[in-house]
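S1.2 Input.
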Amino acid sequence: MIRFRAHRSATLGIVVAGIAFATGAQATDCEVYQKYQHWVVGADTPGRTQDTEFRDGLLYVADGYAGLRIIDFTDLFQPVTVGSVSAGGDASRIVVVGNHAYLCVNPVGLVVVNVSNPAAPFVVTVLPTGTTPMGIDAQGTLLAVAASGAGVLLFDISDPDSPQLLAVVDTPDSARAVSIIGDLLCVADHLSGLQIVDVADPENPSIIGSLGEIGPTRAVHAVDSIAYVTSFDTGLRIIDISQPTSPSVLGFVPMPGEGDMLGVVAREDLAYVATGTIGVHTVSIADPSHPFILATMKTPGTSENVSLSGEFAFVSDSFYGVQVVSIASSELARPRGSVDTPSWARDLVVDGNRAYIADHHAGMQIADVTDPDAPFLLGGFPLPGETAAVQVAGNFAYVMNSSVGLQIVDVTAPSSPVAAGSVTLDGFARAGALFGSYLAIAADWGGLKIVDVSSPAAPVVIGSLALPGNVVGIRVRDGLAYIAGRQAGVHVVDLSDPTAPVRITTADTPGEAWNLAFQGDYLVVADDTPGLQIFDVSNPQAPLLVRNVDTKGQAFDVEISNGIAYVAHVAGGLQVVDVSDPTAAVTIGGIDLGSSTGLATNGEHVYVADGAAGVEIAPVQCPVTASVENTFSDGPTRVIASPNPFVGSTSIRFALDRSSRVEIELHDVRGRRARTLDAGMLSTGTQAIAWDGLDDNGRPVASGVYFVRVRTKDTILSGQVIRTSPR
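S1.3 Output.
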């Protein structure tokens, strides 16, 4: 059972939706992963995603040689490409003004696309730029194109179908990026640093200031009187341009050895820097003289640029398409404790206060996890070859190994485990599932093996079944084995006669099925790059695919507890997915780790086999119905909806530190008001206001993300809620 503790404290905290948020060092046995910065969803594209711009629920993507892509994010978790058009070359940067998108396209130049009908965009004009166009920005009817060695080209776009060249700014080196702010144009001019151009008269621009010696500049974003400039391999500089003739560096965030600093965007007190293979840095710029990195969000590919809309960042992730990150917080969720292992932690099982770890070339390791903040190794059992998985029952561990096959180990004394018995197998024992006195083993190319383990000292193979694909994961329920067969999908096998298992059916998956878990009558499959595939198996003879959940990286393992799926990803760490309604499953958070390939949960903690890092331990997701002490801070903070996502209705929950008249507004991702709820005068304490999913005209709102604003006389609280379609 999950325990949850909440304490009165002087530190900032609030109880909303039955969940306690706290910024102090308060102990809890569960976590609210939604409240952290986290990866949300990815949208694959056919080309190399290099830049994006979000407008009215649509994301416009400069997708390399695939041209312009337009993706509808009305349903954040199920993005859909609605239109595309070739740009005739490598589309690298984009800006959208009104019904037109302007693209930098190498070697073509400036390409203008009419996007008035997003489903059928078309090119209206192409203007050569002479050299490679590398950056673009617009303000009003002025468009600036950074054209590398040709400097900066200024266009009048009052007639968007026929832009007119106004002037060319000859910069000292190679113009890589531009940002217009009022009458000033800031240019990242590679080796000549930052150039500042007066464009009050765009037909007669002039360079009025510069700042060299700041490294080979790559990107620039100007806000108010500040220019945020990245250099290729050094970091982010914050530059005061209030005196444009003499700009000066206010602050610097070094990012040495971290790949190319490619794109930057700043908003309020935060800047987001795309850093290639490292991911996206969130930088505090509240004090421009002392900026610092708050968080780093890894992405599956190479982050090239970032654009913002509301509480989301859209990351141009090169050949991995668009990655969407929730930036409502700048804090990342982190594990509680870890324990290193001699080799490479591949998988594990937890029994009581012990974790039994399949440690690749070091056999099985046993760890004491009584204190999740300070786990430690108790002992180990070395084996030749590769150890892939462990199962435990009573005083015996069943270890699956490439050389031995099945090794049964007596773990009565965990500091000195001893061999009990073993049996060789045809194939590589990858995973196993105990049922009765039998162990069903997924033996890779060797198919399914059924081993009688009633006598641990003398296990014996009593049945086998050849299966298509590489058999690598297995679960047994109600006399049936559900087997992950990688490229072959999921096999369903009848085990009513263990000596003669029979395949009933095979359900194909789009990726490679590595592992699986149950949520009621649904089977959740870790399917490598395509993420999670969810099947309705109420009729095991005809599994029905009902939902795909995109995941960050390659989904290798999945465990489910209390309606929450915990997913292990190679290069993606731990991902947390709400599968309480499997047909509307959504990602709610996660933790960036190393190379995670296996995990286990005991209902209170999640234990992740994280390769060279050993085992990482994290809290489980808090249930929204957790019973907690009704405490709140000296002032209100934010809003939570429960359930979230929802189908019919949801409860909008928040806390007030004083009696106030309250009005709640809900807006869609395009900024359109969907509903206003007049809650009237409410008293001090935790509040809950129901929303039936209808708009102000009594019509059901569309599926998608809705931003919630709770207004009082003195404050505005914010949050978000997701409405999904009914089955």
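S1.4 Remarks. Confidence is low (pLDDT under 50) at residues 1-28, 624-637.
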